[in-house]
Amino acid sequence: MSLCGSVSALNLRWEKGIPKSTTRCFSPSSCKKSNGLAFWGSEFVGEGLKVSGRYVNRKLSTGTLQLKVVCVDYPRPQIDDTANFLEAASLSASFRASARPSKPLKIVIAGAGLAGLSTAKYLADAGHKPVLLEARDVLGGKVAAWKDNDGDWYETGLHIFFGAYPNVQNLFGELGINDRLQWKEHSMIFAMPNKPGEFSRFDFPDVLPAPINGIWAILRNNEMLTWPEKIKFAIGLLPAMLGGQSYVEAQDNLTVQEWMRSRGVPDRVTTEVFIAMSKALNFINPDELSMQCILIALNRFLQEKHGSKMAFLDGNPPERLCEPIVEHIQSLGGEVRLNSRIQKIELNNDGTVNRFLLNDGSVIEGDAYVFATPVDILKLLLPNDWKEIPYFKKLDKLVGVPVINVHIWFDRKLKNTYDHLLFSRSPLLSVYADMSVTCKEYYNPNQSMLELVFAPAEEWISRSDSEIIDATMMELAKLFPDEISADQSKAKIMKYHVVKTPRSVYKTVPDCEPCRPLQRSPIEGFYLAGDYTKQKYLASMEGAVLSGKFCAQAIVKDYEMLVAREKRRVAEAGVR
Questions:
Q1: β-pair partners for 74
Q2: What is the mean pLDDT of residues 259-271?
Q3: How far is CA 489 from CA 391, 466, 477, 483, 493, in A?
Q4: Which of 379, 419, 337, 387 is CA-nearest to residue 109?
Q5: What is the CATH classification number for the domain harbouring 292?
Q6: Neighbouring C-alpha atoms within 13 Å toward the C-beta of 324
Q7: CATH code of residue 560
Q8: What is the 3-state secondary structure (H, E, C) of 307-345?
């Protein structure tokens, strides 16, 4: 039996059952049936992160109408019987079922983002003792978040959990926190730049299987693409649909724009759909993004019925996602240490790792070592003796992409929005959401908080926060023409936070795939984890979690070698 909650500024009550339908209302004036905001239903940090904010001393006018927020999420989709979910579940189970080590390994892991947390979690499941070191005072890496003086959270990025994220979905289930995902209706919603304030939807019918539900969603939308454009795009996609994974991987040498043109797909298809999709996937435009990235996403979304269905986390990622992983690791004897920044990787005479030297002067030794930081940080700390090894030399091609995440609190509840992720189709913005509607912890009955991804950000990352906010407001004036103006003569900014990440996920440009390393390095006892390492989900939360599982799997397989290595080290130390 399901539960639905009704939350307002004045009351908190829980009721049994979920209504089958409702009228979506976004303000008392826009709906006569209810004065509520309806919640229906059951993918970033690099070196040099900058977080800043500004407060504007404005108060809500007296007599402000209290809107009631009704929190009723869509049920969790039936994804547990998909091939990808079962494959992910089998990999998770292999750690729990592995033979208990006679001598648990001490594995030192640098970086408590999702890749490092995943590595530590599955090593602990296999009976080993991970020691996870995080340079900062916050968990999460690219999903980190902070609380300001008002108690409001602001995040590194706007993170979406897809049905096509089988390892992430398994992780939530293994931790017993499936209820922390707020699933939204199965739709993709795009703003219409030529019709300010209007949106176009791709709605995926629940009654149809994949890929028919996705094809139906595309065919039913006549606002963004014409029928001739749809036909030419479908013909262009046929080789990808018939060629499988080998074909997809072979397209890594072309940008999205080059691939579309080579297949006779009109440029307007790229402009209408794939600029927004490219920016959402990797924060860059189609003239830079590898077509492999788009094809992988389309394959997941079209081949799995609920693949493109989206969920928001019900609160801030460090507490709602990362802390349960830490608690699990600690319950099995592992450790997680914050404020533990690595200064140097110290080597033995044979070129293997001797220990990590930390910024505070302390050192830490282990039976094996993992770097689960962004690739740019790894390259900064890479020992000189390793830099010409081909495995590490190829990392030069992998560079983090800059991204900016913007949070703006307004003095009123905005009406022209949805309980969903929205594709802005703006030249400066990627995706956005009114987090006061989509996320339970952030809900506010009186004020909207828009979280927006500002991308591409390369030309803006060094600009002032005020310039970024001014540019954002100009774009928002087009998305909310009746409610927002660039000069704030309509909705007023109460405060804002700007989070700059100069090096986020690796930039998925053509010919990167051969440069992505396997998790087991050629240095005995040294491993890598991170979404840039070899796994099929590229730069994403799913990719980070899967890379951690692959890293843990490699270490478990190397157990006998690592034990023998430690015995040799002890014996050599005794001879000295």
A1: 183
A2: 94
A3: 56, 17, 11, 9, 10
A4: 337
A5: 1.10.3110
A6: 13
A7: 3.50.50.60
A8: CCCEEEECCCHHHHHHHHHHHHHHHCCCEEECCCCEEEE
Q: For residue 22, give both structure tokens.
A: 């409702």
Strands 368-371 and 106-110, sheet pairing: parallel
Q: Based on the domain organization, do 377 and 258 belong to the same domain?
A: no
**Nearest Cα residue to 542 out of 294, 290, 170:** 170
Structure tokens at 186: 């199965």
Which residues does 210 contact at the CB level (< 8 Å), separation at least 6? Answer: 302, 303, 304, 305, 307
Q: Are 46 and 38 a contacting pair, CB within 8 Å?
A: no
Spacing of C-alpha 422 from chain mean position? 15
Longest dimension (CA), the chain: 85
pLDDT in tens, 295-324: 999 888 888 999 999 999 999 999 999 999
Q: Of 273, 247, 270, nearest to 257 (Cα)?
A: 270
For the cut 80, the answer to whether the pLDDT of residue 117 exceeds it is yes
Which residue segment(s) compose the domain that 275 sits in? Answer: 210-305
- Name residue, tokens 């992910």: 88
Q: Per the structure block, which two tokens stand in for 14?
A: 């829980």
Residues 6+ apart with CB under 8 A from 444: 413, 436
Contact yes or no for 443/437 (Cβ under 8 A): yes
